[in-house]
Amino acid sequence: MIIAFIFLFSLFVIKKGYFSKLLENNISVFLRQFAFSIFLTHQFIRTLWMYYVCKAHSQWVIAHPVENLVLFFIVVILFGVFTYYFVEKPSFKYLKKKFLR
Fold first, then answer.
1. How far from 74 is each of 38, 46, 77, 79, 86, CA to CA, in Å?
2. What value does the CA radius of gyration of the chain take, rounded to a whole number of Å?
3. Sign of the four-CA dihedral 87, 89, 94, 99
4. Which long-range contacts (CB under 8 A, 24 or more apart) does 28-35 make?
5. DSSP strand E in 1-101: where?
6. Which of 62, 40, 35 is nearest to 50 (CA)?
7. What is the pLDDT of residues 20-44, one digit of tens each?
8. pLDDT in tens, 42-98
9. Given a cut of 70, is residue 17 above it in pLDDT?
10. Angstrom distance (rounded) from CA 41 to CA 77
11. 37: buried, middle or exposed (CB in 10 Å: 19+, 13-18, 0-12)?
12. Closest to 37 in 3D by CA, of 74, 77, 95
């Protein structure tokens, strides 16, 4: 497993192979700036999603698993973008102004 990771990582660093080309498309480059916000908020969204959408007693049950998964990813990405613009970016600007004078 470690050898495979080292091999894939080295291909990614030298920008060779399918994996490297897959991550260099426009969507991946666009989502890269929101990655930290998505990482911080995805567990919160997952908990809410499991409670409100995936429970049998919920009114919002989505029966088809593919739709459930696609909608979940869309909601996570949108909430991550929202968090980036309205929490992370203003916080960074404020902290930069406060501590780097």
1. 11, 12, 5, 9, 18
2. 18
3. positive
4. 31/77, 33/84, 34/77, 34/80, 34/81, 34/84
5. none
6. 62
7. 676 677 777 788 889 999 999 999 9
8. 999 999 988 877 776 666 666 677 788 888 899 999 999 999 999 999 999 999 999
9. no
10. 9
11. buried
12. 77
Q: What is the helix, strand, coil percentage profile of the chain, to 5? A: 75, 0, 25
Q: Residue 40, exposed/middle/buried by CB under 10 A (0-12, 13-18, 19+)? A: middle
Cα 78 from chain centre: 9
pLDDT at 59: 64
- For tokens 């911080």, the residue is 40
HEC states along 25-39?
Answer: CHHHHHHHCCHHHHH
For tokens 């567990």, name the residue.
43
